[in-house]
Specification:
2 copies of one chain form a homodimer. The first copy, chain A, is α+β, with helices and mostly antiparallel strands and about 180 residues long. The first copy, chain A, has 3 helices and 13 strands. In chain A, the strands form 4 sheets. Chain A has a 4-stranded mixed β-sheet, with no helix packed on it. A 4-stranded mixed β-sheet of chain A has the order 7-4-11-9, sandwiched between helices. Chain A starts with 8 loop residues before the first strand and ends with a helix.
Chain lengths: ~180, ~180
């Protein structure tokens, strides 16, 4: 069965949690068939992730403890955008804060939606090359280990599932296709 | 600065929202430096997404309205796992429900973590081929349009950012690498 119009319209909104990094609300919506449904929504600021490749074709990675999953994950540098912050400037900021790197070239790799069902985040991706290095400048509640891993090894680990972080996989595999690697 | 142990341990947990598809809690945690921090956590069941390719090398896609983003997204068939459901069986179930397809081959493409910061979901991916077709069998609050798009066009659209859904991008680009396409 096909529906010409799949749109769901908001009837009412009930805020249920206001946190530091998210707001949760439950909305009553009008479904495509005219009935009433409920949608649980997490509002969250957008983010940016940076695939930074040094002059020896190595990717800058950060390993950090992900409390929600109870383990460390290997990821590309990334972070939440400040309110109304341009994602290009935010990306340059996060890259410098987490790794000290300042790129000569900073190319947009597009964005993606991590979890379209209930989690309102767009994640913007950049490819950073021509890196110069300054000091790290981490947030007070942020601890991470920076490493450098050959690009081809990163591709392999993104394909075989060893690297689990979505933004890292997408940035590496988009760059592989765009760089014809 | 490097920390040998990046682990954060739970001191206390406060449940703030119990919904139908998620539970939100705020935990006090011991940070690596001994100080106390706070983590906002969304518990959510795991999911499964299926890259199904028909005998004419076309990918089965579903277009559905994503209320959180206020627009339709083009995605691969996917869904939440039932409590304690095996992700292979869940994948076969979701594929059949959303598209009617029943595959001859069903290969695991690994999992990924959509949003490691605060959203507890693992998403498992499968590659389905050798498709036979039965009737669709949608959930009562689910509306979607099924389409078929050539694999190479899907790759192009996942790379250029036109396709925004994370699981779709990862499944397509992992399959591209594994199938040496």
């Amino acid at each position: 069965m096909e529906f010409k119009d799949l749109k769901e319209t908001t009837i009412s909104r009930k805020d249920v949690f206001e946190g530091k990094i998210m707001t949760v609300h439950v909305d009553q919506v009008r479904l495509p068939n005219g009935e009433i449904g409920e949608r649980e929504v997490i509002d969250h600021v957008d983010g940016v992730g940076i695939l930074a490749i040094d002059d020896e074709d190595r990717v800058l990675t950060v390993t950090q403890y992900r409390y929600v999953f109870g383990k460390t994950l290997l990821e590309i540098p990334a972070g939440k955008l400040d309110w109304n912050e341009d994602h290009r400037l935010g990306g340059l900021r996060e890259l410098r804060e987490e790794t000290g790197a300042v790129p000569e070239k900073f190319e947009y790799l597009g964005s993606f939606i991590p979890a379209p069902g209930c989690y309102m985040e767009n994640l913007h991706l950049y490819l950073a090359t021509g890196l110069k290095f300054q000091e790290q400048d981490l947030d007070p509640d942020e601890w991470l280990d920076v490493d450098r891993i050959p690009f081809d090894e990163m591709v392999e680990r993104c394909v075989n599932g060893e690297i689990e972080d979505g933004k890292t996989i997408i940035a590496v595999l988009r760059a592989k296709a765009l760089l014809h690697r």
